[in-house]
Amino acid sequence: MKKFIAFIIALSATPLSILSVNAEKVDYSLWDRFIKYDLRITDYDSLSEEEKDLCKFIFETERSSEDTIICERARRILAGYDVGERIDPEQVENYYNIIDRCEDYWLLTPYPNPYENGYESFREQYEFSKNRATLEAVPDIRHIDEDNCYNEYWTDDERTASIEIYNNSYYTFDEEPFIYKVYDGDTYEKYEIEKNLEFLPTMEYEGCTYQIYPDNTLALYSFNNNIVDSVDIPENIDGMAVTGIKMFAFDQCDIESIHLPETISYIEPFAFYNCEHLCDINFPEGLKSIGDSGFCDCSALGDINIDCPNLEFSKFPFYNCTAKNITVNTKKIPDSVIYSFTEYESLTIGDDVKEVGIYLLNTDTEIPESVKIVTWGEIYEESITVPEHIEILGAYTEPSGNKFLSVSIGGEPKIPLIDNPSMTELHHSIIKGYYNTEAHKYAITNNEQFQALDNLKYGDANNDGNINIADAVSLQKYLFGNGTVGYEADLNKDGTIDSFDMIPMRKTILNPQ
Q1: Tell me: domain 200-352, CATH 3.30.460.80, correct?
Q2: CA angle 69, 74, 78 (to 5 degrees)
Q3: Which of 232, 328, 217, 333 has its CA nearest to residue 266?
Q4: CA angle, corner 53, sides to 49 and 55, nearest 5?
Q5: Which of 59, 90, 235, 480 has the fewest C-beta atoms lying within 10 Å of its C-beta?
Q6: Helix ranges (DSSP H) in 369-486
Q7: How many CB atoms lie within 10 A of CB 481?
Q8: pLDDT tens digits, residue range 304-322?
Q9: For strand 97-99 and strand 134-136, is the pairing parallel, antiparallel, or unpaired?
Q10: What is the per-residue burial (b if ≥16 Cβ within 10 Å, else e) of 327-356?
């Protein structure tokens, strides 16, 4: 094993301001909104003490930071994802890069466009790094500002040491060593860990080339047999598990059917690029990530069934794809996943889905009661219909730093917790829903029009089964703050009981139907 090459530069500066929380910098009035719309928690009291500590850590750490950061690992733990083991500095010595396969690289980096500079140059840009070993890990802290853009991978919960990666791209092309810091109070010693620049060894098996990783797992590097129209990838070869599909592994193949083993946990970007004859493929339950454009231009896909509890989608995993019938059962279905498909006949949402994008509400797709959260998005339609069981409408999207292509060139960071506008702000869309639900509260809070879907006897303000002058008296008393009425008094069905309901009340009493 290579040895650490030590700078041994002891610095007197605070390791990172994010851990020296200054309570005066944190606006605790944002706490309730943060818990609900940012962390997507509707029953805070039901959390364990450990989970409550994570909530506090995320809030105070992110809000007190001088730059734009995301407590990535803690957030995923709260969301119920498998974050895996922490990195070991000794293990890192065997790898060329450290990546988080679930991170949305399309947004974080100027991603190469294969149509812009020519397909071959795009391929060549990635070939040399594709041959080297990358270590999959979840960062503890993501710094997402352009001038301070790096990931921190802690070696333990206390951050006694960390490794910093100053490039968030899927493949990094520099040969700079890893930065390894060991902390001692307010100081740290800084070391370097040389990257392993050697190409991974490969092996051939049944018409495919596999890379052998340092942890004795295999990744399918390339499919070399264009004679057959189907392939069944094995779970293991010579005792080594096949865990991944590499970038361009099935690039422009004529393959029609592929069976992936249950050991597959990741599919890299463009892995099945332009497989225009691929019509049948399965998605193993243990799959955790599908890279950007993993199935780009797959124009013959038939039925798709994705039942993967730990899968986190990239932005456009099925870019420009067609499919007939789609079934998705993951924790979250972002709008971008559905946008990826050029057309489809049906979409079925599984019973384990907890969150969907706003786009799905105005489609023919049935939203099951398991779905409690709708992600924020601009509503361009005249109206949006919100199911009664939705508990969070407009859950915040991820913060954006002042990074190129993240917001705008030279743009200021956007923190949804303090900068998030109403979803209906652009077109003042009507919110259709039920009284005393999240849809009702959202419309009232954002001063937008609400259209009630409840089957009520409008006009029966005192809820005695009859509509008469007594209901007008009850409404008048309510307006003067001297009584209570039911939602039956909202005669104009705008979600608010006010003086504007007196006119239709009068008409209802004078002209009973």
Answers
A1: no
A2: 130
A3: 217
A4: 115
A5: 480
A6: 416-419, 438-445, 469-479
A7: 6
A8: 999 999 999 888 889 889 8
A9: parallel
A10: ebbbbbbbebbbebbeebeebebbeebbbb
By DSSP bridging, strand 312-313 and strand 289-290 are parallel
Instruction: Identify which of 47, 75, 77, 81 has the alpha carbon closest to the alpha carbon of residue 331.
Output: 81
CA distance 392 to 381: 20
Say if residues 126 and 314 touch (Cβ distance below 8 Å).
Answer: no
Kind and range of the H or E run holding 122: helix 119-130
d(CA 405, CA 19): 28
Structure tokens, 171 = 């493949």
pLDDT tens digits for range 123-180: 676 777 889 999 999 999 999 887 778 899 999 999 999 999 876 556 666 788 999 9
For 45-99, the DSSP string reads: GGS-HHHHHHHHHHHHHHHH-SS-EE-HHHHHHHHT----PPP-HHHHTT-SEEE
The whole-angstrom separation of Cα 335 and Cα 359 is 6
- Please name the fold of domain 456-510: Type 1 dockerin domain (1.10.1330)
Ramachandran region of residue 8, left (φ > 0), alpha (ψ -120 to 50) or beta? left
DSSP 13: S
Residues 189, 9 contacting (CB under 8 angstroms): yes
Pick the closest to residue 448 from 417, 467, 470, 427 (CA basis): 427
What value, to the nearest 5°, has the Cα angle with vertex 106 and ends 311 and 129?
A: 90
Identify the DSSP state of 462: T
Q: List the chain domain ranges.
A: 5-193, 200-352, 354-439, 456-510
